Amino acid sequence: MKSLHKMSMLIYLFIFFILIQNMGNITAPSNPVELIEIKSDKQSPLAYTASAPITEPPIDMDENIRTRLKNFRNEAAKLCQLYPKSFFSSLPTYNKKIALTFDDGPDSHTTVKVLDILEYYNIPATFFVIGQNIDKHREVIYRAIKNGHEIANHSWSHIRPTSVSAAELISEVEKTQAKLQEMGITTKVFRPPYGLITPQQMEALKGLGYKAIIWSVDSMDWYTTNPQEIVQCVLSNVHPGAIILMHCAGGHDNRSGTIEALPLIISALKKEGYEFVTIQEMINF
Ligand SMILES: [Zn+2]
What we know:
Elements: H1 2-27, H2 32-42, H3 63-82, E1 87-88, E2 97-105, H4 110-121, E3 126-129, H5 138-146, E4 150-153, H6 166-182, E5 189-190, H7 199-207, E6 211-213, E7 217-218, H8 227-235, E8 243-247, H9 256-271, E9 275-276, H10 279-282
Parallel strand pairs: 1-6, 2-3, 2-8, 2-9, 3-4, 5-6, 7-8
């Protein structure tokens, strides 16, 4: 009887010991969702900044283009550093938010197809338009505004800013801005054609209240018409706060590669949990 009592005491002690052991596990905070988020944030060194480095496109390309793009990335990084509040390559966010941007519109063919696709997926984007094309395609711009897209300035005639004076650039920008204002658009966001400006031009733009916005991910749709390559350029380089460069006009084949790639890009990014925003939504002006 005594040994039975001893035995049960030992069992009680054992159970007590196990309970104490597990106490730590029971009371420790366990939130797998939160932990996963923290982990993925830490793994994204490109996030949370308005000047993430422009990523290198992961496709085969001519050596001279590769060199040109490398020089471009270096020059753009310098501008981001010099003008952290005026020259942006990405959006300052901790979250999986990205901005799709479409340059060189409006037209009545490709821009319309891009709008159709964005409408189907019910997501907003930003269109950097060429001033001299606005009057011919006003209805396209009105449709874009109605659908919640942002319309921004891409100069009057797509000049290369680094080849003209600051005064010439400002005249190009202001002429387009006046046209946009006629249509009720007040956003003061400017994307320099080809992505670069001189410090003198940036100072002049700053003085007039403009922000210069380039991109951190180049879809390369100006270089390749292969939709798979365009998809690859975006998906392999995407990051929280990415600004993605695409085109909605020009090109010798009406940007057929862009039109084919766009639905694949959007659905893949949605699956990855990305939210689509306009530039204006993410940067306080
Ligand atoms: Zn352009």
